[in-house]
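Quick one, probably user error.
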């Protein structure tokens, strides 16, 4: 994990790509799921949720690109119409911790993708905060988007499965 490199890659379309083969769930708790999938770049590990009535989704994924692990956060809403390449920032609060991430619109109009930057020491600490947190809030400074909140109960088991997956790829 020491070689974990964070990058913004707007061309990657989904946490669990529609074109991915052999998507296998590793853990599922309280609407959150961890999985491993095969993409055109090889195996990737992800965790997140689409378990809501508003059409929103939140995914964290790790993928090996050019030999290094890259971490991504993907946030979306089925009602969005974001221009490919549009940029901005989101703030993810987990209990009392905050991370600010820069994002770019992707080839999917209903999704933005961000690299990790912010108040947490590194991506692994962000993932651990996610695992141990009780509540998450996602805000979109400067945008006309209401803040999102999510219950993180049960994410410890999902995160453990995600990290075990990351150690294998």
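Nope, works fine. Designed sequence:
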């Amino acid at each position: 994990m020491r070689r974990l490199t964070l990058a913004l890659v707007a061309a990657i379309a989904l946490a669990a790509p529609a074109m991915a083969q052999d998507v296998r769930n590793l853990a599922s708790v309280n609407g959150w799921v961890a999985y491993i999938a095969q993409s055109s770049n090889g195996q990737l590990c992800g965790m997140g949720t689409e378990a809501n009535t508003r059409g929103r989704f939140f995914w964290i994924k790790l993928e090996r690109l050019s030999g290094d692990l890259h971490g991504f956060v993907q946030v979306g809403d089925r009602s969005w119409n974001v221009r490919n390449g549009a940029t901005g920032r989101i703030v993810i609060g987990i209990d009392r911790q905050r991370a600010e991430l820069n994002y770019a619109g992707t080839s999917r109009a209903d999704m933005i993708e961000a690299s990790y930057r912010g108040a947490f020491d590194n991506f692994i600490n962000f993932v651990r905060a996610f695992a141990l947190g009780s509540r998450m809030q996602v805000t979109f400074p400067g945008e006309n988007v209401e803040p999102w909140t999510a219950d993180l109960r049960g994410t410890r088991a999902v995160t453990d499965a995600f990290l075990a997956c990351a150690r294998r790829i």
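Helices lie at 123-132, 155-168.
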